[in-house]
Amino acid sequence: MNVIATISLHLIVIYFESVNTVCKKMPEREVKTAKFYTLILLWILPMLIASVVALTLRLETTRQLFPICKGTWIFPYVDTSEGGKSSILGFDTTGGVLRFSYQIGKGVEYPYAGVAIAPLGDTTSIDLGEYDHVELLTNGENGSQLSFYIKTMVKDFSNTKNDLTCRNCMVTLTPVAGKKRYVFSLDAFATPMWWFDMNHLSPADIPDKPEFNRTRTITLESNEVTPVGVPQKLVITKMIFYKDIFGIYLLIEVATCIAYLLIFSFVNWKKI
Q: Hey, which end of the chain has fewer CB within 10 Å, N or C?
């Protein structure tokens, strides 16, 4: 990226020096027109360069978890192993689209059904530590409210064989008909008190912020408001984690503007 910036600045210097040479041979009116359009270019280019650099950085600070990425797998689950009567009506990931149909049934006090993304093989966690937002794209029918969990390992406490010992960090969402984009800051994912009570912990016993670099699973699950006996459908087309770089974008734009002003002075524009 530094090489690209250096080459760009050299090209800009050559451009302005060429304009300087040409303008000396032009009538005054045409010189003013050339100056006007060059000034417009001078202020538009920083935004274009900042956009290109920001897009490059965004691609470098993004991790897509669905459609499925290498090292992870996605699977459905229900409460039947605990005596529940919830059921999976359909599960399919062909064509890069997750389609999950389910129905909550009575049988346990807190029935549930959901889909999870987890690491493959001997890997115990997914590293999401460098990201600060998650984006979810859905495209389908109306559905009941869902709990969106990021479950992280707690040092010296969590057991990979007991999912409930992983810290549950949650937000809620309600799928709507048609295409819908949800964006959540990872700071919005809160640990519910029931998790502390179930594990006989208090908030003071664990770090203030979840260790997203040790994410065990990411799940979308029914919750207490999901109606019993009513078929539900969830359709997901994409799930990505990314780092917000808007501040970097502004910094690049300001720095580029300053660089252009220095170049502007260097080529003695005022002497044209």
A: N
pLDDT tens-place string over residues 219-256:
999 999 999 999 999 899 999 999 877 666 566 666 66
Q: Tell me the sheet residues that pair with 134.
A: 184, 241
Helix (H) or strand (E) holding 136: strand 133-140
Amino acid at 173: L
- Distance from chain centroid for Cα 225: 27
3-state secondary structure of 64: strand
Reading the block at residue 14, the tokens are 């050559």
> Two tokens at 132?
């600060």
Structure tokens at 182: 């949800």
Among candidate residues 91, 117, 87, 89, the one with its CA nearest the CA of residue 104: 87
> Regarding beta strands 113-119 and 72-78, do their DSSP bridges make them parallel or antiparallel, or are they unpaired?
antiparallel
> Residue 270: which of 96, 86, 41, 20 has the closest Cα?
20
* pTM across the whole model: 0.72
Mean residue pLDDT across the chain: 81
